[in-house]
Amino acid sequence: MALSKRITTLTSDASGGWDLFLRARAMKAAGVDVTELTIGEHDIRTDPAILDEMHRAALAGHTGYADIPGIPALRDEVAARIEAASGVKTTRDNVLVTPGGQSGLFASHMALCDPGQNALFIDPYYATYPGTIRGAGAIPCPVAARPENGFQPDPADIDVVAAGGAASLMINTPNNPTGVVYSRETLEGIAEVARARDLWLISDEVYDSQVWEGRHLSIRAIEGMAERTLVVGSMSKSHAMTGSRIGWVVGPQEVVGHMINLSTHTTYGVAGYIQDAALFALRRGARAEEEVAAPFRRRREIALGVLAGQNALRLVPPQGAMYLMLDIRATGMSGSGFAEKLLDECHIAVMPGESFGAAAAGHIRVAMTIEDSAFGNALKKLVDFAQAQI
Ligand code: PMP
Q1: CB-side neighbour CA atoms (13 Å) of 174
Q2: From ligand 1's centre to the CA of 243, what distance in Å?
């Protein structure tokens, strides 16, 4: 029996990066002491106070079908958060609660792109992006951000790809995998292209609580952009709630209305007790988010110390998110060649840059997701390994 092309070609560009991740997991299962610096998962769990609230809400009966767009109190809280951060008037009618940011990205493309239309995104990119776009029937079109520009996207490059006709552009700041936070200049340039080419913007801001340098600026806050932007947010990274699957999309009321209809026919909403816990967590304010972000801030400092005074590895200045992007081109190796050898010889697993797109070739991504001293030691070994390759 034939399967749909949509599903069989969803990840036709699947890269070797995940092969390495799976090989590291298999080595671990076989008893090898592998240091994993691969995926973006905190080494802390969800705060027990949030779990207590989840439990309380479930026992209180919030276990039936919940409001599909999200419970009103949570939509209000998300709207207030987004309005406070961006200065753009936002109400619950602008908010759809989703089971995580990933489903928000998919639903956004479903809402904005017709089958066969081009959907742009910036390379290097979070690994699911092309499959998310294909899943919605659109055609993924990468726009390379260059390492020599510190991986800030160049609006002129976006314009060249958009000139072929496109429905949407997806951006991600703070960025996974590069750690780059888009500057105001970059965002204003992107906004100009979006207006000139009549593009929808999908702004993935799931790392907005992890900014180490400068300030996170949402493109929705730029003049004339609120009407053509969907912001995707999540509590996975900000509150260490990856497994709870809770996030949101914020955008124009009309688009959100259609997306509620899509939710009715797909997810049917998010569990009520998870939403209650999310509301409780958001109401704890910025301090709680800073606590979740603090280990990454510390490890970034550790990394700056370890990487100073050597030139085998060049650090792309990490301004946000829980990763380091290291340029390994001085070794003459590819990102995957380097990562494979590092795994075999040092039992350290990192993601090859190539698994995040062609623009990240010759780089590796290091997740800052293990305890501080183990992280510092692993980085030192990584530096020694890189030096030995030159
Ligand atoms: N966007 C980016 C850039 C991510 O790194 C992730 C998760 N790693 C997501 C979206 C999706 O996160 P979630 O579905 O857990 O909210």
Answers
A1: 22
A2: 11
Pocket test for ligand 1, best of 176, 210, 231 (most atoms within 8 A of CB): 176
> CATH: 3.30.365.10, 3.40.640.10, 3.40.50.2300, 3.10.270.10. Which one for 48-284?
3.40.640.10
Q: Is the pLDDT of residue 163 over 90?
A: yes
pLDDT tens digits for 273-314?
A: 999 999 999 999 999 999 999 999 999 999 999 999 899 999
119-148 mean pLDDT = 96
Nearest atom, ligand 1, residue 101 CA: 16
Q: 206 CA to middle of ligand 1, Å?
A: 6
Q: Tell me: cis bond preceding 115? Omega within 30 of 0 counts.
A: no
Count of beta carbons in the 10 Å neighbourhood of residue 198: 10
> How far, in Å, is the centroid of ligand 1 from the Cα of 379?
25
Which is the closest atom of ligand 1 to the Cα of 234? 16
pLDDT band for position 19 (50/70/90)? confident
- 233 pLDDT more than 90: yes
- List ligand 1's pocket residues with C-beta within 6 A: 40, 100-102, 126, 172, 176, 204, 206, 234, 236, 242, 247
User: Over 70: is that where the pLDDT of 383 sits?
Assistant: yes
What atom in ligand 1 is closest to the CA of residue 126?
3
Query: Is the model's pLDDT at 175 over the cut of 70?
Result: yes
The percentage of residues in the chain with a pLDDT greater than 70, rounded to a whole number, is: 98
pLDDT at residue number 80 = 98
Q: Report whether the peptide linkage leading into residue 318 is cis, meaning its omega lies within 30 degrees of zero.
A: no
CA of 101 to the centre of ligand 1 (A): 6
Q: Where are the domains of the chain?
A: 5-45+287-389, 48-284
Please give the model's pTM, rounded to 2 decimal places: 0.97
Pairing of strands 247-250, 229-234: antiparallel
Q: Which CATH superfamily is domain 5-45+287-389 in?
A: Aspartate Aminotransferase, domain 1 (3.90.1150.10)
